[in-house]
């Protein structure tokens, strides 16, 4: 397996599987932050220390299989072109922060792209595990298994009182971020989500954009995650987040029903106009494409559009991002060239779906 394996398809294999509440919840993720004991953390470490961490992971885990996660590929970030880095960011296999690293940063990615381990990002080790739909408890159990597997060969920095030690104080304790990616078009259009966010924050959770901290929400897709990592067990954190997410699912479904009851023709018009734009546009910017894709996905979920699958929409959300477009074109593109290619790829993909 090579880097090209991760570049070929916009949609990761695990995303093609169904999951609970997948009309609203796109994915569940558990991320564990860990550091090696007796080694300076990445924010102050010298290059020799960071190189040693990379060497441990390449020697111990490259091409290994753990449970049903096969053939982990070790990828040095410095060996990637800028476009290749951003493709991995757009697929959520690495973070934007890791993509900007110059020396001794790496990723260990399973063949099915369900697991990625970021090496020498903000912490020495960041384990990420994804599941489709709302499956936080299952993701947590698998993340614990992976954590134990890595700890067999790595001595973690751990304090009996504080828990796992991390570069950022907000991660100390469990070192865990649990997050759920949600499609919330009805709550967004009715402006209910803006009123809910302060209450969500007060419960110890945060609402972010599609690429996490500091990113913008695109296509009415939001990431809901825990803020508190100290003073609670991982299971309690996941249980609390699960409760918030289930309430949001309920509110989103109620909002969708109200829109249908109160302005059905207006809703249908917006959905079919969006479908028409995607099917016939010759130039389309990323923000407009994301909005139209969101509207069409809502139409699929409501049963108004029957000839397009959710997976196609998931695929196009990634395929039409700047990094993937330039990888597809095999060259750097201007903003206008990306807008032209984006429209062309969307038209082509929708036509294939009809055949």
Tell me what you see in this structure:
GO terms for molecular function: protein arginine kinase activity. It catalyses: L-arginyl-[protein] + ATP = N(omega)-phospho-L-arginyl-[protein] + ADP + H(+). A motif (RDXXRA motif of the pArg binding pocket involved in allosteric regulation) lies at residues 338-343. It is a single chain. The chain has 355 residues and is an alpha+beta fold. The model has no long low-confidence stretch (mean pLDDT 90). It starts with a helix and ends with a helix. An 8-stranded antiparallel sheet has the order 2-3-4-5-1-8-10-9. Strands 6-7 form a two-stranded antiparallel sheet. It has helices at 3-8, 47-61, 82-90, 96-99, 136-151, 185-189, 192-202, 234-280, 286-301, 310-319, 322-329, 335-354, and strands spanning 25-34, 73-76, 106-109, 115-119, 125-132, 158-159, 163-164, 176-183, 205-208, 221-226.
Mean pLDDT across every amino acid position: 90
Lateral arrangement of strands in the main beta sheet: 2-3-4-5-1-8-10-9
Quick one: overall form?
globular
What is the terminal-to-terminal distance? 32 Å
How would you sum up the major sheet? 8 strands, antiparallel
Quote the beta fraction: 5-15%
Global structural class: alpha+beta
Low-confidence stretches: none
The tally of helices reads 12
Keywords: Allosteric enzyme, ATP-binding, Kinase, Nucleotide-binding, Transferase
Protein name: Protein-arginine kinase
InterPro entries: Arg_Kinase, ATP-guanido_PTrfase, ATP-guanido_PTrfase_AS, ATP-guanido_PTrfase_cat, Gln_synth/guanido_kin_cat_dom
Family: Belongs to the ATP:guanido phosphotransferase family.
